[in-house]
Amino acid sequence: MRTAMSRQELGAGVDFLVVGAGIIGLSIAREIKRRQPTAAVAVIEKELDVGEHTSGRNSGVLHAGFYYAADSLKARFCRDGNRRLRAYCEAKGLPVNACGKLVVVANDGEQGTLDVLFDRARANGIDVKEVSDKQAREIEPRARTKGRALWSPTTASIDPGLLMHALKADAIEAGIFLHFGAAFLGRDGDVVRTSLGPIAARYVVNAAGLYADKIALLYGFSQNTRILPFKGVYLHSDEPPGALATHVYPVPNLKNPFLGVHFTVTVDRRVKIGPTAMPAFWREHYGGLGGFNPLELGEIIGRQLGLAFGAKFDFLGLAREEMKKYRRSTLVSQAARLVDDVRPAHYRRWGQPGIRAQLLRLKERELEMDFVIEGDARSMHVLNAVSPGLTCALPFAEHIVDEIEARLGIVRQTPPPPAMYEEAEEPARMEQPTKPKRTRKPPASKTRPPKPSTSS
Question: Are 432 and 174 in contact (CB under 8 A)?
């Protein structure tokens, strides 16, 4: 089975070009191909495999969906995304740890926020239970909570690396062409310039993660938004598997999109604490000077300084608190508020860092709390797909393709059938966009291209 197209074929044109082979990009490509089996669908990725950035460095937690306001896209997709991704993993023989989650209360001041979480759970149709401190300890004997806790039985853990490779295999089987080592360089009208050469694309879907805003700007989108990167790192315990029975999370600060330092139980039942949410200084600032980009450094530090003195949230306080977490002792002591018998000697190994591609609203100077997409009849741009992006990937991809169809003026007589992994029936076919007119030599772009990138 062919997995890629020749340069000549790419130059002749594809129906749909997806930029980025993270979980969102692959899910969108699969959904397009599901609805339009005869369309030529190609994915380009600057790295040499799928999920090398956010998707593959994900914590692996399948969230239940009770953190999010009922009118948000996150709330809309999280419950079904959890159910469907668990079903997908089980159908593919991928491991799932259905360990659940406790949200514990540290003090009386957090009781009101816990009530908000219960209200959101009810509004979103999420299965959660209020449990007493005694019941919480029956679930997890080491859990510490004041009076009561929230129990989420549907929260789970998976292996994001195994998931990404299963999706990759499905994409290849479906006839989607995957091109690795293919960096997005810019555009000339309907022609996308890549490190593999020009690709004539009738429709472009930008799922480039950390560089999604840069690409979107070339298409006239993301005018009031920019990606602000935050680095997340976990500390891993050397305790034996089963040291904790369930995830244990604090009551979050609902004014920002981070959930606080918590205990995560991995798919192999081991424990890690974190993550940090430290401001990064360039987009792929995983550690040291790796991926260093001086232009990004200047741009991002300038934006951070602006937020320090004019944001609608306490960016400076957030940055101070997060920088303290570079110290192992600080991270462990924060986690010890949630669980008894936490010994610093168990937590010595830092995990692989990940970068959160967090969207910032420039005029409002605030972090975007929900998913964001923008597009028209030529392109669609996924600008914010942060946590719980992995959990929501399957229904979120369907929503994005619905939006593409709307931009293309496609009206269905009946809605597309639900598609998880097994598809009940063949969906109505998507009409292909009109093939663009091309010259033999595309004109030079008048827009300065971003750094070559297709971040997953």
Answer: no
